[in-house]
């Protein structure tokens, strides 16, 4: 089986980084390595990650920069980019192992389920999965998986302030059809819970529409944050 590198971008995530890494320990063996790509956290994120990850690297902030930095030290033949608030389930991991064991993997992602089990959150997760399947474009929450060879061929994530996951998906879908795992990863619903359900949905639609219109990702990042 191809060696897998799980690369986790993090910035000021001291409250959750240990929980995330502990949840990944059962998958950690000779064929799987954990890399935390810290964006210069001002809390203890990097320090807390040191004893639970194989490598902790630091780059300038921005998920694209951080994930590209993580990929530079990764030893795996396949990269899995996992957000700090996305939990990799055993079922999803085992399905990925089966696919990697067959060889010739190009790229893909997992279906998602939000951690809040309320009806509205289940609908949001379902629509995220449908949209990704219809467009062959995944978001960071869905955990991009890509072979080292293909990732390097595309020179990694476009180093833009936001929408790097969408940008690289559009490049990848021109090369190969994605593998989509129907075993879910669990995405924290904190974004929707903290900002408000409707407000967050409208904001994401607005950002995607403006990105489609060609608005700079620096401006989109300012609107997002």
Topology:
Blueprint: E1 4-10, H1 17-24, E2 32-38, H2 45-49, E3 55-58, H3 63-73, E4 78-81, E5 86-87, H4 90-102, E6 107-114, H5 119-135, E7 145-147, H6 148-153, H7 164-172, E8 179-187, H8 190-195, H9 197-212, H10 217-224
Helix pairs in contact: 9-10
Key structural traits:
225 residues; alpha/beta; Spore Coat Polysaccharide Biosynthesis Protein SpsA, Chain A; 8-stranded mixed beta sheet; 10 helices; 8 strands; globular
Explain what the structure shows:
The chain has 225 residues and is of the alpha/beta class. The protein has one domain: Spore Coat Polysaccharide Biosynthesis Protein SpsA, Chain A. Helices cover 44% and strands 20% of the residues. The chain has helices at 17-24, 45-49, 63-73, 90-102, 119-135, 148-153, 164-172, 190-195, 197-212, 217-224, and strands at residues 4-10, 32-38, 55-58, 78-81, 86-87, 107-114, 145-147, 179-187. It has an eight-stranded mixed beta sheet. Helix 9 (197-212) runs antiparallel to helix 10. The chain is globular. It starts with a strand and ends with a helix.
